[in-house]
Each structure stands twice: as C-alpha cells, then as structure tokens.
C-alpha cells in the first residue's frame, strides 16, 4: 500500500544562487505529477523553502524522490523527509486517497 511523505525543503544559499535552479525544480514537480506521485506542493510565503507531498511505497522510494529534486541535487536546498499519516481532513480528499490505496 502506498504511503504519503512530506518533503520539507529549506533554501540554504542566497537567492541569486538559488533562482537559476527553480525551473528545473518546477519541471521535476510536473514529472512527479504526471507519474501520479505528487500530491501537493508549494513554497512557504516567506520564500525560505517549501513542502512537497508525495506518494511512495517505501521510505527508500520517498528518499530517492527527495534526493533527485534538482534543488537538492545542486545543494541549494536541504530537505527533511517525514512519513505522514492522514487521520482527518476534507471528506472528498480523504476518500480519494483511500480509493487510490494511500494511507
């Protein structure tokens, strides 16, 4: 059964160093979306990083997703990976996740 993982990205360089890598990161997110791996993503309003929620069968698979993000590969972001258990939320969203076999 698939599980949900939260990838917290934190920018670790100045904006001038970070910005050139953003298009590759956004393309990577689109690839994850097309593969059915991406659940949600977005930056923090203060632009210090962001969150990517992904579906994976194991923590190793989720770790590989995080490590392959261009922001992480180019060492402009660090990341923290946490498995997330959904216990409540919008009925439509939780029903969809259960239907997809995600816990």
Description:
The chain is α+β, with helices and mostly antiparallel strands and 103 residues long. The chain has a single domain, classed as 2-Layer Sandwich (Alpha-Beta Plaits). 38% of the residues lie in helices and 30% in strands. The chain contains five helices and four strands; from the N terminus they run βααββααβα. Strands 2-3-1-4 form a four-stranded antiparallel β-sheet. A hairpin with a 5-residue loop joins β2 and β3. The longest helix has 13 residues, at 22-34. The protein is elongated and about 45 Å long. It starts with a strand and ends with a helix. The model has no long low-confidence stretch (mean pLDDT 91).
What is the strand and helix layout of this fold?
Layout: E1 3-11, H1 15-18, H2 22-34, E2 38-43, E3 49-56, H3 59-67, H4 70-73, E4 77-84, H5 91-99
Antiparallel strand pairs: 1-3, 1-4, 2-3
Q: Please give the count of helices.
A: 5
Distance between the termini: 7 Å
CATH class assignment? Alpha Beta
Tell me about the biggest sheet?
4 strands, antiparallel
Q: Helical content, roughly?
A: 25-40%
What radius of gyration results from the CA coordinates? 14 Å
What low-confidence regions span 5 or more consecutive residues with pLDDT below 50?
A: none
What general outline do the C-alpha atoms trace?
elongated
């Amino acid at each position: 059964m698939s599980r949900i993982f939260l990838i917290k990205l934190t920018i670790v360089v100045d904006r001038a160093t970070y910005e050139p890598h953003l298009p590759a990161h956004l393309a990577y997110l689109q690839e994850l979306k097309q593969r059915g791996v991406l659940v949600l993503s977005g930056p923090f309003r203060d632009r210090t990083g962001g969150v990517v929620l992904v579906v994976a069968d194991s923590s190793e698979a989720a770790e590989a997703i995080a490590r392959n993000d261009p922001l992480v590969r180019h060492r402009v972001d660090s990341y923290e990976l946490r498995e997330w258990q959904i216990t409540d939320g919008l009925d439509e969203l939780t029903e969809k996740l259960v239907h997809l076999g995600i816990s």
